[in-house]
Q: What sequence folds into this?
């Protein structure tokens, strides 16, 4: 397939066609990986439909309960979570599911014969606090190969980001955009609601090398280490602009499209950072690196962080290689 920027009008390739074409490159493929991605696609279409009608159906607002993160669960957090679990649970290829909304990983199979080769981790609804104000929200997912040697089946979910075999996000914005990597570059699809298909619009997403734009919740600056404050002072002095939605998927997608750097540093309130390693930082790190960018947690490459527990939090600095390097220069001092 050519690598020039495609538009849906020139090359009508659906996600399904793309996945089957990728699968055909692997002679021993069982189709399980394709089934996992098709489950994620189906669930995201369901979530998109519910988000679009959120104001019309009784799905806005909170459940009045907190999740394992100690955050108030929105109704659509639960709806999205259930959609993903039901879609993935009914597919043969998934051994373990780990979700931001569930305390523990869900074991779908003891996988004694190895027919369930994948672990899927996800943030079913990212940026849910933006839902009630019709802001951009998203879904983030990470795919690992099931590690049958893990002491406990659920420990198979605790593999470093370098072991991911796939990652992606869906942005529920003015359009519904799926950005995906299966390890050979980054592809972007847009949902055509008229036919219910994700159509390929870019088969080689590359993050711009630089852009004088940083994205962070500047209200936290007073709680950040001096190095981050020094970086922001430098950037402001260099004429950088700041954009921040407060939904990681939206802020990262803008960074992927326009370049720049997204930061969520450690704060007094979140001393290890707020974002979760396994289903926010790692999948975004794989996507950004596959698109030619960088992703660090402090001075450590995010995908090298060895996970200790499924909901652990890490600092995040990711985006254009040149822009991340500017931040790392201050962190190294
Ligand atoms: P989630 O809605 O899945 O809990 O994620 C929210 C996260 C992330 O989307 C965003 O980057 C960050 O929270 C924003 O945090 P602040 O509101 O503290 O800036
Ligand atoms: Mn999130
Ligand atoms: Mn979430």
A:
């Amino acid at each position: 397939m050519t690598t020039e920027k495609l538009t849906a009008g020139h090359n009508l390739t659906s996600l399904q066609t793309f996945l089957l074409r990728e699968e055909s490159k692997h002679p021993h493929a069982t189709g399980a990986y394709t089934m996992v991605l098709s489950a994620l696609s189906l669930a995201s279409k369901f979530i998109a439909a519910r988000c679009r009608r959120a104001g019309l159906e009784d799905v806005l607002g909170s459940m009045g309960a907190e999740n394992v993160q100690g955050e108030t669960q929105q109704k659509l957090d639960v709806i999205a979570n259930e959609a993903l679990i039901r879609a993935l649970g009914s597919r043969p290829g998934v051994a373990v599911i780990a979700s931001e909304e569930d305390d523990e990983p869900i074991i779908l199979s003891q996988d004694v014969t190895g027919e369930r080769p994948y672990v899927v981790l996800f943030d079913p609804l990212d940026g849910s606090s933006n839902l009630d104000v019709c802001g951009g929200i998203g879904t983030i997912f990470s795919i690992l190969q099931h590690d049958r040697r893990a002491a406990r089946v659920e420990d198979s979910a605790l593999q470093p980001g370098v072991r991911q075999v796939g990652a992606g996000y869906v942005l529920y914005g003015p359009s519904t955009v799926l950005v995906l990597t299966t390890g050979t570059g980054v592809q972007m699809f847009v949902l055509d609601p008229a036919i219910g298909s994700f159509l390929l619009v870019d088969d080689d997403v590359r993050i711009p090398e630089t852009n004088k734009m940083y994205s962070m919740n500047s209200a936290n600056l007073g709680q950040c280490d001096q190095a981050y404050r020094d970086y922001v002072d430098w950037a402001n002095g260099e004429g950088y602009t700041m954009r921040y939605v407060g939904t990681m998927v939206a802020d990262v997608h803008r960074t992927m499209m326009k370049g720049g750097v997204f930061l969520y540093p450690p704060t007094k309130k979140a001393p290890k950072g707020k974002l979760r390693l396994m289903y926010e930082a790692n999948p975004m790190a794989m996507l950004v690196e596959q698109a030619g960018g960088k992703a660090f947690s402090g001075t450590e490459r995010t995908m090298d962080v060895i996970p200790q527990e499924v909901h652990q939090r890490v600092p995040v600095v990711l985006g254009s290689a040149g822009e991340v390097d500017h931040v790392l220069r201050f962190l190294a001092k």
